[in-house]
Design a protein that fits this description.
Layout: E1 14-20, H1 23-34, E2 42-47, H2 53-64, E3 78-81, E4 90-94, H3 110-113, E5 118-122, E6 135-142, E7 152-159
Parallel strand pairs: 2-5, 2-6, 4-5
Antiparallel strand pairs: 1-7, 3-4, 6-7
Helix pairs in contact: 1-2
Amino acid sequence: MEAPAAPHSAAEPLSVSITVNSPDQMGELGRRLAKLLRAGDLVMLTGELGAGKTTLTRGLGEGLGVRGAVTSPTFVIARVHPSLGDGPPLVHVDAYRLAGGLDDMEDLDLDVSLPESVIVVEWGEGKVEELTDDRLSVIIHRAVGDTTDEVRHVTVTGLGERWSGVELGVLGG
């Protein structure tokens, strides 16, 4: 007989690893992830160009039921997608062109938007962590170089008290 699992503490991050084999599966992962999200959540996406960050966010938008096509906000930096129902709006940020940390992002008013929105930041590592101790880190690894390989290895880590009781294993499908 196995010993009961130790309770999860807020100090230790909770992680799950998922293999995604196609853009459709990446979108489906986003739709599943959307079911775990609520207003006030910050999701940081990390991955190389073409890894699937925007595809994942498109699935999140579908799962959250927001208005507008979710496309990469590379040149506009941020897009707000209002909810079509009673859920939170999605704020989609691309911090790739922002050199500094939160100071460079101050004009985006993410700290004001956070309590009532789900904020997804691509390329946010080292730039938005100061917004909240509670965040979801999504790291997408893909084969690099001249490859048509669609396989992605996604690691989702919940940081902070908000994620301490959330079962991320449901994301594995």
